[in-house]
Structures are given as structure tokens and as C-alpha cells.
Amino acid sequence: MQFQQLQYFVAVAETRHFTRAADLVHVAQPSLSQQIKALERELGADLFLRARGNITLTDAGEALLPLARRILADADTARHEVQELAQLRSGRVRLGATPSLCTGLLPDVLRAFHDRYPGIRLLIEEGGSHDLVRELARGALDLALVVLPLPTPSPALTTVELLREDLVVVSSPDAPRPGQGRRAVRVADLEGERLVMFRHGYDLRELTVAACRAEGFEPDFAVEGGEMDAVLGFVRAGLGVAVVPRMVAARSGRGLRVTPLARPGLNRTIALAHRSDVAPPRAARELQRMLLER
């Protein structure tokens, strides 16, 4: 099995077309087809069902695809690691983070990292913890900032606790203060409040809904389904209140009233994760150090 054959296989699997795949990997279509057939002979199984105008994966192809993607991703990481120049003058870091962390934690850290290593490209992927864990496992990310506990814990990942962050309630300054004007709002005070709620799969949604149910009530949603920027915009417009991380509220506070939650309050644990079987590239290790020392 050759590395080039895996490249060609993944290209066909993603385009479902031999000619477009050949263009994608810059090779003549007959050569690509010959390499795919050679790979199938070596494996002893067809990888594609070939019908006129319709290319689909066989069961063998479906089994090979995630493995091939991971091999190619690891090889790409190795190439970048070897090509990095001394003193981190070049290279890249592929970092995943939840949208709230991209808004609250990362701007200052990434600015400091960029000032120190301007030649390092920063590739940021926003997503929920579940999606980021999957991308880490298949080698598409070097590091990820995730919320603990992970939805599906995996021994293939190493996590290091980074910080514990309090959540606060944000509302429009023109709306009545939540919790009947108290300086600190209890979770129970959110009963009867109209909430602006994040989309399904968002860590903050699950945490907030669980806290309300623990107090014996179902939250009342004024609007739901947004990402962080949308939720903050809806709150500014007076559509309702939202529970957000303190760092996000501090950075996005213009046009918002911020009210802390009374003890014990709500908080979340942020961790830095990477694959256990492969050390992060040199540039990623330096960003990891800066995040842990912040």
C-alpha cells in the first residue's frame, strides 16, 4: 500500500468522480484509475462501486476511508514539523475551540503568540466539544480547547485542565433587571424569565438547561438556535436574558448588563486536549505552553 494510492483513494471518495479526483491531485485520470485498481488488488477487495455517473464506496471503502484520512493527516503534520525552521520562524498551529472560548479566551492569547512568532500560521476551527474531539482523533487538529467532562471520554486523548470559569447572566440595560433587581441572581430566579438560548449541541445550552431542571423548572425560551454572537445580539435587542461565560461578558459587555450568579452559581471547566499517541508539532507545543501559563 503506497501513500500516493491513499491520496488518490481519498480524492475519489470525496469527489465521487475519477476525473475530478485526478484534477484535484494533479495526475492524469488513467494513472489515478490504475493506482486505485492496484490498491484494490493488494487489499483483495473493491473499494468503489462503479456505475455510469455514480461512484459509491463499498463496505471495504467505508472502512478504509477514516484510516486513510488519518494516515494522510499524520503525514501532513510530520511534514510541517520537519519543515519548521529554527526559532519557530515558520510553521502552523491547527487549534480548535468552542465559539465562546474563541470570543472570550483566545483573542489575547493568540495576539501574544502572534507577536512572538509572526511567521506561524494560526488555523482556528470553531465547534462544539464533541466535534472538536472527533477532529482531534482523525488528526485534523493539533490542539483543542474543550469543556469537561467530554461527551465521549477517550483514552486516545490527553486533557489538561486549563481553568474553571464562572457563568453570568447578561441582559439588556433597558429591560428589567433579572431576579427582581438583586445584585446576584440565583438559578431559581430564571424561572419565568425569557431566555435567549444557544443551539442544540452547544455546551452552554446543556449546562443551563440542566441547572434549571435541577431547580425544578423548564426554562422558557424567547429565541433559540444561535451561536455566541447571535445570542449576545438578541440579548442587546431586549429579546431576553442569557447565561454566558464571564470572559465573554467582559469582552462583549457594551450594550449589556452583567449580573453574577449567586453562590454556588454555575461554572465550567476548560481543558486543553491533544492526541495521546502523537506529540503536537513544535509550534503547537509553544502555544500550549502559553495557554497553560496564562
TrEMBL record:
Residue span, HTH lysR-type domain: 1-58
UniProt cross-references to SUPFAM superfamilies, sorted A to Z: Periplasmic binding protein-like II, Winged helix' DNA-binding domain
Record keywords: DNA-binding, Transcription, Transcription regulation
Cited InterPro entries: LysR_HTH_N, LysR_subst-bd, WH-like_DNA-bd_sf, WH_DNA-bd_sf
Keyword Glycoprotein found: no
Family: Belongs to the LysR transcriptional regulatory family.
Name recorded for this polypeptide: LysR family transcriptional regulator
Organism from which the protein derives: Streptomyces djakartensis
